[in-house]
Amino acid sequence: MASPGPRLPGIHRPEGLAAAARPGDVPQPQHLHLPGWVRRAHGQARPILADLIGNLSGEPRQQFSAHVAALVEGMSSGKFSLAWQYPGLIDEGWALVGRQRADAEEEAKRRRGLESARRRVADQLRDAGARLTPETATRLNRTLRSADGPDAIKEVANELDHAVAAVRTLEERRRDREIDRTRERLRRSLPRGADAEAPAESWQDSLRRIAEQYSE
Fold first, then answer.
1. Which among 197, 151, 202 has a CA at the least distance from the CA of 179?
2. Lower Cβ count inside 10 Å, N or C end of the chain?
3. Alpha-helix residue ranges (DSSP H) falling in the chain
4. What is d(CA 150, CA 157) in angstroms, rounded to the nearest whole number?
């Protein structure tokens, strides 16, 4: 009876690992006497490792590719027992893919929050409308578009609040001066001594009384 040969490492494709659009390069072990079981183990692991590399980017991809290359190089030098490290190597790559996915989701969440905050401040800028000078509005819009973080956007919002508050203060001062001028005109329009005999009336009552006189 022929021997079934050495037992192969338990190599399994991680559930959820997507086929990479551009699989990574996984070299073939080069040895004149490469055992058949090592060749079969590599044949099982190779497409999985290639997809793991293809699903990675940046430093994690370089790191994992180097580990794969080191393992294959070791088997090429005759260390055939390294084939038993394929399952652990696949687990390492899958963990890197998971961390990279989590980082990408966190970055996407951060960007969504940033854009949401940017839109809120943009709406406030639009609502401020004519209250701001064209120069101020242009500068704040430009700064808001280039803001690359929540603190920078908050700074634009604070500056907008201060600018609107300053405009409101000026408007209130102009209104108060207009009220004072109106009061003075009303006082001068009254007969001499009438202001002393009649109880003091509020400027609202004075304006209302004048409006009623004109309507008559």
1. 202
2. N
3. 36-54, 58-76, 86-128, 134-146, 150-189, 194-197, 203-215
4. 10
Under the banding of pLDDT at 50, 70 and 90, the label for residue 196 is very low
First-to-last C-alpha distance (Å) of the chain: 125
CA-to-CA distance for 199 and 99, rounded, in angstroms?
79
Q: Are 46 and 93 in contact (CB under 8 A)?
A: no
- Tell the burial category of 149 from Cβ atoms under 10 Å away from its Cβ (0-12, 13-18, 19+): exposed
SS (H, E, C) 107-136: HHHHHHHHHHHHHHHHHHHHHHHHHCCHHH
| pLDDT tens, residue by residue, 141-180 | 999 999 989 999 999 999 888 888 888 887 778 777 877 7
Looking at the predicted structure, is the pLDDT value of residue 212 above 70?
no
What is the per-residue pLDDT across 40-88, written as a single tens digit (0 to 9) for each? 999 999 999 999 999 999 999 999 999 999 999 999 999 999 999 999 9
